[in-house]
Design goal:
heterodimer; A: 109 residues; mainly alpha; 3 helices; 72% helix; B: mainly alpha; 3% strand
Chain lengths: 109, 638
């Protein structure tokens, strides 16, 4: 039995908007970072699904999984992003003991 | 040697660069000797060039590089070496060298020593470029350079308001003349298709343009000459230029700058000779300036101002000679004048230096015993200025007056002879008030001292020159100078009756007797007035009443200029300023203000809250998705 492409995309879309909603509504910087991860992984899922689909359609080698390579890039970038993001949060926390992004508004113009 | 002629301006330029770059920090007192040495080197090369030209070298053009080449217009930086320019080179470098040496002593206590000796050689450099250029454009470069350097040097003590003002005045007046030069230069190019002296003069000889065009060119050039050479109506900057240090006055008045106008007209002799009426006008302006300035010099009390008006007057003689069709006589007088006027200025400077900066002759007197060397050299220079035989001025001035008479300008001759009497009187007065009689300021007199050797040696050298240089024009009308310059000034000689080949001794003696008698009369009057008080100068000035006042106030020319021209110019400048402030600046300010306002509005978008930014990112994403989706499905396409 094969899962249809639409199912993958639906799951991916749900995950993505859950993540996006989290980024918008949560106040805790760490949680926002986690939500960003969620969005990234949603897009990973979509990428893998489309890659598999492209192989099935028979445009060349059925083992061609080039689309999946992007997932690896996204994972690497996600790791880097978390490192930088957590470092920023840590630095901000040292300056003033909060991780609430609404209280960190020194950049107001 | 001729092909190395570019070395002549190169040395002063090098001295300028070195002194300007390293003078303040490292060279300090050495800038003076360095500058003097560079001029000495130039003088040596100039002597070499002169000897080569004398031994028969033809007119040579030494190209250096192409300055401008646009379409049909080509201007080379090239040197024109002919008798005229080689003689000028010699005079300029030798006199400038002596003045440089003198200035080492004169400026010794000035804190701007290095600055002075940066600009001094630059001045000489500009003058040499002016003399050497083989076309009007290069000449104009030197012309402007001389104007700039005069501005810098007249305003050397710019901390005081008077020198700064005098420098500005000199610059502005010169600019008016420069405008004339430019008009002349451009018209020359339009008419002849070239600015090279050689090409232009050839064209004039072969097929001259319409008389009107030629007259316009000559008038424009003459306007330039009146600016640089301080003739009516643009003379009044020169007396004010006395605010500069005395060596500067000497350099401006003797070797450089003011001779530029005479040189320009002498160089353009073929042009002027073809435009007859203008040439006569040149002579008229010269004669008028000569007598005008001489009368002012009669009553001045500042020793340097007497000399300044004397320079204006003597330059008038040179233009008189040019106008009377005797360019050789004009050049002759230029050379002799360079010697004795440099000496008069350096002598005055020596006096001023010796009594601590006082220039008012009413506070001097009796200085002969304190400064014998200065006194005797000044007497020689004064004699030369008063045209006493056999000193330098006698030969050249007599030749000018003789040619004026013989070429059919008896009025110019009368004016010249009369001015000669005035000249003799005022120079006697100046020397008497300074060196003879009782000291009128005891304190100054006690502290007076002869100048150091570095200043008196140039005086001696110039005194020898002032006494002997006249003999280059001996025998009259047929001396060495005449045969030397004649090839260069031949075009003028062809149409105007240049003096005959052979000296006419009887004629010469008659003219000499008349002008010398007038000169001696002036001297005797001066002596009797100031030594014995017969007639008493004070009584004379009282009797002259309003006429005396007019002279003391220099014919109110400065006041008239102030009201007529400076006022108008200032009003115009004020209007321009208002336009600039309100319209130009207003526009820019309004624009800035509008942008500031817009920025102020946009600033509110920058809340500093991350959530808001994230929201806008998501909103943007949704927008893209809707638009893209709309296009992809055809909903937005239609």
């Amino acid at each position: 039995m094969t899962v249809p492409l639409g199912a993958f995309i639906a799951v991916s879309a749900v995950l993505f908007f859950l993540g996006a909603g989290g980024v918008l509504v949560r106040r805790n910087a760490v949680v926002i970072l986690m939500c960003v991860e969620l969005m990234l992984n949603a897009s990973n899922l979509a990428l893998v699904a489309f890659s598999r689909r492209a192989g099935q359609l028979g445009a060349g080698n059925p083992l061609d999984q080039r689309g999946s390579v992007f997932v690896v890039f996204v994972l690497v970038i996600a790791a880097a992003e978390v490192a930088v993001g957590l470092a920023i949060i840590l630095a901000a926390y040292r300056n003033r003991p909060t991780v609430n992004v609404d209280e960190l508004h020194e950049m107001k113009g | 040697m001729i092909h190395n002629v570019w070395l002549i301006p190169a040395f002063p330029l090098a001295a300028f660069l070195i002194n300007a770059l390293f003078g303040r920090r490292w060279l300090k007192r050495w800038t003076g000797p360095l500058a003097s040495l560079s001029i000495a080197a130039s003088a040596l090369v100039a002597i070499g060039v002169f000897l080569e030209v004398r031994s028969g070298a033809e007119r040579t053009i030494v190209p250096l590089y192409t300055f401008i080449s646009v379409g049909a217009f080509h201007a080379n930086v090239a040197a024109l070496v002919d008798p005229l320019s080689s003689a000028m080179l010699l005079v300029v470098t030798v006199i400038s060298f002596l003045i440089h040496v003198y200035a080492i002593g004169y400026m010794a206590h000035d804190h701007g020593f290095w600055r002075f000796f940066s600009w001094f050689p630059l001045f000489v450099f500009a003058m040499l470029i002016l003399v050497l250029g083989d076309n009007y454009l290069v000449m104009f470069v030197g012309w402007e350079g001389v104007g700039l350097c005069s501005y810098l040097l007249i305003g050397f003590w710019f901390e005081r308001p008077e020198p700064a003002g005098a420098a500005k005045k000199a610059f502005v007046m010169n600019r008016i003349g420069d405008w004339g030069f430019m008009i002349g230069m451009i018209t020359t190019f339009l008419v002849f298709g070239s600015m090279n002296f050689v090409d232009v003069f050839e064209r004039v000889a072969k097929d001259p343009p319409a008389q009107g065009v030629l007259s316009l060119i000559c008038l424009a050039f003459f306007l330039g000459a009146t600016g640089k050479s301080a003739q009516l109506p643009l003379y009044s900057w020169l007396p004010d230029a006395m605010e500069g240090p005395t060596p500067v006055s000497a350099l401006i008045h003797a070797a450089t700058m003011v001779t530029a106008g005479v040189y320009l007209v002498a160089r353009s002799t073929p042009l002027f000779a073809a435009a007859g009426p203008v040439l006569a006008g040149v002579g008229g302006v010269g004669a008028l300036t000569a007598i005008f300035a001489a009368t002012i010099a009669l009553v001045q009390v500042d020793i340097k101002r007497v000399m300044a008006y004397s320079t204006v007057s003597q330059l008038g003689y040179m233009f008189l000679a040019l106008g009377a069709g005797a360019p050789i006589a004009a050049m002759f007088h230029l050379i002799t004048h360079a010697f004795f006027k440099a000496l008069l200025f350096l002598g005055s400077g020596s006096v001023i230096h010796g009594i601590g900066g006082v220039q008012d002759m009413r506070r001097m007197g009796g200085l002969r015993s304190k400064m014998p060397l200065t006194y005797w050299t000044m007497v020689i220079a004064g004699g030369a200025l008063a045209a006493l035989p056999p000193l330098a001025g006698f030969w050249s001035k007599d030749e000018i007056l003789g040619s004026a008479f013989k070429n059919g300008y008896p009025i110019l001759w009368v004016v010249g002879v009369f001015t000669g009497g005035l000249t003799a009187f005022y120079v006697t007065r100046a020397i008497w008030l300074t060196f003879h009689g009782q000291p009128r300021d005891r304190q100054l007199f006690e502290h007076a001292h002869e100048s150091p050797r570095v200043m008196t040696w140039p005086l001696l050298a110039l005194a020898v020159g002032s006494a002997l240089v006249g003999f280059i024009g001996f025998p009259p009308d047929n001396g060495f100078l005449h045969s030397f310059l004649r090839p260069a000034l031949e075009a003028g000689a062809a149409q105007q009756a240049i003096p005959p080949e052979a000296s006419n001794w009887l004629e010469f003696l008659a003219f000499a007797a008349i002008s010398t008698a007038v000169g001696v009369g002036g001297i005797l009057l001066g002596l009797s007035m100031y030594s014995r008080g017969r007639p008493d100068p004070a009584a004379v000035s009282r009797a002259a009443g309003p006429y005396y006042d007019v002279l003391v106030n220099k014919y109110y020319v400065d006041e008239i200029y102030d009201r007529r021209f400076v006022g108008v110019a200032k009003a115009f400048a004020g209007a321009a300023w208002a336009f600039d402030i309100h319209i130009i600046d207003g526009l820019v300010n309004r624009l800035g203000w509008a942008i500031k306002l817009a920025g102020g509005g946009l600033r509110r978008a920058q809340t500093g809250i991350v959530g808001n930014y994230a929201l806008s990112v998501v909103a943007g994403l949704l927008l893209i998705m809707v638009v893209y989706g709309g296009y992809a499905t055809g909903w937005l396409r239609r």
